[in-house]
Amino acid sequence: MSALTTQRHHDWQRRELKRSLRNVNLRKHAGALALVAPLAVFIFLVFVMPVASMISRSVQSPEVVDALPSTTDVLRNWKKGTPVPDEAYRALVLDMERNGGNNESGNAAARLNGQKEGFRSLFYRTATALPFGDNDGRLPAAEVKAKLIEVDKRWEDAGFWGAIARDSSRYTSQYLLATFDFRHDAEGKIVPVEHSAYQEVFKRTFVISGYVTLIALLLGYPLAYWIAGLPAGKANMVMILVLLPFWTSILVRISAWIVILQGSGLVNKGLMSLDLISSPLPLLFNRVGVLISMTHILLPFMILPLYSVMKSVPNSYVKAAVSLGSHPFGAFWKVYFPQTLPGVGAGGLLVFITALGYYITPALLGGAGDQMVSYYIAYFTNVALNWGMACALGAVLLVITLILFGVYRKIVGKELKVG
């Protein structure tokens, strides 16, 4: 009996011990979550929510539905090729009379004018002729139709009604299609636009970012290699000089490059004083000025990853290869350089992705043919007030960046497995 009691006591102790350990682990996890929670909330508020809002706005088109709710409701059941329902004319008049002096009709007209030219003037002429005295909808629909056509005969054109029907939903693929230079035709089919615009802009963005990344690598690799070979004290001093531009405003640095690269600037004056050129070189408001300034600004982002990787590579490896009969360059290329590839990849990815979103430098130092995607995002946001197009361009740029990052992770992962 005592042995059974002792066994039960041991079982009870084990259960209590497990419960105590579980409570301790729960408290530790709760404490860790409490420490991480402010950062998680901050990231959610300033990054996740804006990105989600941008992506959702790129497929939204509420202007026409908000301004013409009754009209779009009637046209949702209208089949193309059949006469426009008389009720659509009455619904349009009621919607425009309900809008009155607010700018909902103007927003809808601007949205529809992008699909069929003339909608803006058509809405304005119709709005000035209202009201028809049908605020309660008692006039026959055929009479309202006749009065509307009397105001402007373009209301007989089914193409204008088709444009309203295509925007009878709050969601649209028009903005995303436009970023790839496609659109919906009158029949709703996806067709390419007559003049390619955004494909060229994206191509230009990638070309400029690629050139900046390559130049930064060619300049940053030997500099990082030299710094990695210095004593610790001198290396720290040089790294402070590398990081010094971070403490200077980008606008100040761009302004400095304008002074340096202009026709009467330091570069042209120096070359002319050495009789290397007879007239000033065009270094501003073109691709050359953009590449020089962007490389100067982004060079530290290439040097820092390279330096951190190079510091972890022992010099004894190269010395051992040379002592075994290898040429110094062959030892560097076959022994040292492969070990620095993670730094090359990290620095190249960091510079390239950062360069993709540049706006100020091309806007101030480049010409019309040097503007990148960010310039057009800013234009649609601040000037054209076309938030849907701005968000679509931003969403496409974000997706491309994530794809590049995924490719980089996969390549680095394979290299680590092989290593």
UniProtKB/TrEMBL annotation:
Q: Where in the cell is it found?
A: Cell membrane
Q: Which domain of life is it from?
A: Bacteria
Concerning InterPro entries, the annotation shows: MetI-like, MetI-like_sf
Q: What is this entry's stated membrane topology? A: Multi-pass membrane protein
- Cited Pfam families: BPD_transp_1
**Which residue spans traverse the membrane?**
30-52, 206-228, 240-267, 288-310, 344-365, 385-408
Instruction: Tell me its family.
Output: Belongs to the binding-protein-dependent transport system permease family. CysTW subfamily.
- Write down what this protein is called: ABC transporter permease
